[in-house]
Write a structure and sequence with these properties.
This protein is mainly beta and about 550 residues long. It is built from 5 helices and 34 strands. The chain starts with 10 loop residues before the first helix and ends in a 30-residue tail after the last strand. The chain binds 2-acetamido-2-deoxy-beta-D-glucopyranose (NAG) (6 copies). InterPro entries: Cu-oxidase-like_N (IPR011707), Cu-oxidase_2nd (IPR001117), Cu-oxidase_C (IPR011706), Cu-oxidase_fam (IPR045087), Cupredoxin (IPR008972), CuRO_1_AAO-like (IPR034273), CuRO_2_AO-like (IPR034271), CuRO_3_AO-like (IPR034275).
Length: about 550
Amino acid sequence: MGFNVAARGGVAVVLLFLIAITGAEDPYRFFNWNVTYGDIYPLGVRQRGILINGQFPGPDIHSVTNDNLIINVFNSLDEPFLLSWNGVQNRKNSFEDGVEGTTCPIPKGKNFTYILQVKDQIGSFYYFPSLAFHKAAGGFGGIRILSRPRIPVPFPDPAGDYTVLIGDWYKSNHTTLKTHLDRGKKLPFPDGILINGRGTKGGASFNVEQGKTYRLRISNVGLQHSLNFRIQNHKMKLVEVEGTHTLQTTYSSLDVHVGQSYSVLVTADQSPRDYYIVVSTRFTSKVLTTTGVLHYSNSAGSVTGPIPGGPTIQVDWSLNQARSIRTNLTASGPRPNPQGSYHYGLVNTTRTIILQSSAGQVNGKQRYAINSVSYVAPDTPLKLADYFNISGVFRPGSISNKPTGGGIYLDTSVMQADYRAFVEIVFLNKENIIQSYHLDGYSFFVVGMDGGEWTPASRNSYNLRDAVSRCTTQVYPYSWTAIYVALDNVGMWNLRSEFWARQYLGQQFYLRVYTTSNSIRDEYPIPKNTRLCGRANGRHTRPL
Ligand SMILES: *[C@@H]1O[C@H](CO)[C@@H](O)[C@H](O)[C@H]1NC(C)=O
Ligand SMILES: *[C@@H]1O[C@H](CO)[C@@H](O)[C@H](O)[C@H]1NC(C)=O
Ligand SMILES: *[C@@H]1O[C@H](CO)[C@@H](O)[C@H](O)[C@H]1NC(C)=O
Ligand SMILES: *[C@@H]1O[C@H](CO)[C@@H](O)[C@H](O)[C@H]1NC(C)=O
Ligand SMILES: *[C@@H]1O[C@H](CO)[C@@H](O)[C@H](O)[C@H]1NC(C)=O
Ligand SMILES: *[C@@H]1O[C@H](CO)[C@@H](O)[C@H](O)[C@H]1NC(C)=O
């Protein structure tokens, strides 16, 4: 099979090519998605939402470790569109990451076929639209990656497995919110909270049978607010966080920060009736609350009693809960060997990166920055500029390793890092907000978090034994969070705030994990169906 078949294009050829590099033994799953606008009424008023195959939220992706996912996305909106995959690592293949720094937008009326492999992954994640504040209109859905049949899972098969997408929501459409931000204003306070696309009226309902145990995969797909999740009279046993099986600790409520995903087991062990599922905002003076229902199949009646309260402004409660979330070292991950067989705490870090967020005005408009740089998108995806050697698009090193102390300025920030480096990243939050950071392409160990200043002595408090490995971490107000990450995935990877107005107004950059090797052992060749745009227009994904 040679490169000359490229001109014919099409999924079949893409497939043949993929088999050639990834091995045919891993199964393929095909998805055909039509992205349209449609009327939705989540808070009782009509809104223009973004639907996938007519659904809001979009359909779930069900997969098994190592599956190839072939997702053909038709953009039937009137503007460019992209989907991205929160937590799917796209190993050696950042071209498919679906953020504007890696992938050309799908023009209106066109389609693009993503080719992903959930290589060596398990767990609960979600997808979302990455451009133009589309996330405020929907277009998101759950992703679950199950363990392969013979890999032991540290709990019995649940009787049911539910996706629970929670998030803050606005009655305004996404174009209104985007225009607001484009004019240099801050995002206003949201109007409500949704559970699987529903507010309190006609809210989300989950059916259970008495005596059985269910898995709930809870993701915060909202724009800004940390949310507390709880179920009236029921406990939740935490079992998985973004691909890591955790110590199975029981909680009566759980904080889910924006961008994060958690799996809990809930046993229907109460008398048969309906119980409130409650989601409320954290760290806000005005508390927004939404309820859904846990419905027993033999229910004797509807929900009764007061809606159970949860924590509101307490930071220490949340910090203590975060510290209690740890890896079960004897449980397996995507492979049969114990998760504790990789002793990250014994590996010396090769570099320390300190990142500080800030907010301020540039040219009279609100902007957000990391180490003083507020990211602006270039005319060509960074990954394509890198691949085609197009100069003048970005400069590696255009963001500092450490806070500069200077004022906010605009730039296309790209940080260079060596393939196989083992890096400590310290996130500093000197603002009175709760921050949440996500790194594409990776899972990282959350080794420490605390209030006050981070100093080298803070390392003495790091958890070097059973920290949880995940892809999104919170940073509390006037606090720091430290992570360790093994840079074993070559590519151009987005590091961003999940606080969506901040991401949109510059609080992000790209980590260029680089090697001089041109081997497909380290990075796959550019996919043949890659859309080209900007200064990459007219280039060829294969030599002529
Ligand atoms: C668009 O969809 C068609 C099938 O309807 C497929 O053959 C084609 O490869 C897709 N285009 C891209 C760029 O993925
Ligand atoms: C997508 O849905 C729209 C609206 O229902 C329809 O007009 C269009 O033909 C659909 N496109 C595809 C590729 O299915
Ligand atoms: C950890 O995983 C092991 C192996 O599956 C399991 O037997 C044990 O109960 C788990 N321990 C905790 C505390 O979750
Ligand atoms: C979005 O909301 C604004 C303000 O309410 C309205 O003028 C506009 O028509 C809406 N756009 C769409 C496409 O619904
Ligand atoms: C880590 O660094 C220490 C001190 O420099 C050294 O003694 C140790 O051998 C190193 N460990 C590894 C695993 O490289
Ligand atoms: C880009 O430059 C590198 C290093 O000079 C070279 O190996 C590679 O082939 C070039 N890529 C393209 C697409 O021309």
